[in-house]
Amino acid sequence: MTERTITTPACVAEGAAYLAVIEPRFAAALRLTGPLPLRRRPDGFEQLLSAIISQQVSVASAAAIWGRMGVARLTGPRKIQAASDDDLRACGLSRQKIRYARALAEARLDYAALREATSDQVIATLVQVPGIGRWTAEVYAMLSLGRADVFCPGDLALQEAARSLFALDARPTEAALRARAAAWAPWRAVAARLLWAYYRVDKEREGIR
């Protein structure tokens, strides 16, 4: 795997400088946001479980559920497999997310191998697990594996930030934003960081936990 990865704030700054040159609106957004955060996370089971929990709920709700999971020590695959549905439901998981959490635990993904796989291979592997869609897989590749040129156009905060920053008449569809983001290669993951930061400034709330 020879893809560029984001490992330090200097990598993010390099990408942001590139984006500011190729797109004046990004330059304007950077003046509002200031330096962009690294947004690197660990990889592995807990990160994917956290991402599943974050699906279709607010940032605050996801944080609260994850906090209860941590207190109950239900963040590892063996703990998930051993827990009862009532245990997981008490933490705030819906019936569907309980099923997804168990599917992830049973998948026994080779997380070390994912670090060496291409981004396309990572995404293709992850979406085979029930409950992991393309959004979750792309966020994992971007933030847990640090892939510099992965974007997640299905993210509603990114869509809304793009609508505002580019003065679009309506929020772009996932397909439309994916097409627009092609011009931001090879730093699409930094473009995502910039749009999330801009969303925070524009809407005064976080777009991703």
Q: CATH H level of the largest domain: which superfamily?
A: Hypothetical protein, domain 2
Order of helices and strands: HHHHHHHHHHHHH
CATH class of the largest domain: Mainly Alpha
Rounded Rg: 17 Å
Helix content: 55-70%
Residue fraction in strands? under 5%
Number of strands: 0
- Judged by helices, strands and strand pairing, the structural class is mainly alpha
Shape label:
globular
Q: Could you name the CATH topology of the largest domain?
A: Endonuclease III, domain 1
The CATH level-2 architecture of the largest domain is identified as Orthogonal Bundle
Kindly report how far apart the N and C termini lie: 28 Å
Mean pLDDT: 94
State the low-pLDDT regions, or none.
none
Number of domains: 2
Number of helices: 13
* Main sheet makeup: none
Could you characterize what this model shows?
It is a single chain. This protein has 209 residues and is mostly helical. It has two domains: 9-40 and 150-203, Orthogonal Bundle (Endonuclease Iii, domain 2), CATH 1.10.1670; 45-144, Hypothetical protein, domain 2 (Endonuclease III, domain 1, Orthogonal Bundle), CATH 1.10.340.30. Helix content is 63%, strand content 0%. It has 13 helices and no strands. Helix 1 (9-22) packs across helix 2 and helix 9 (119-126) packs across helix 10. The mean pLDDT is 94.
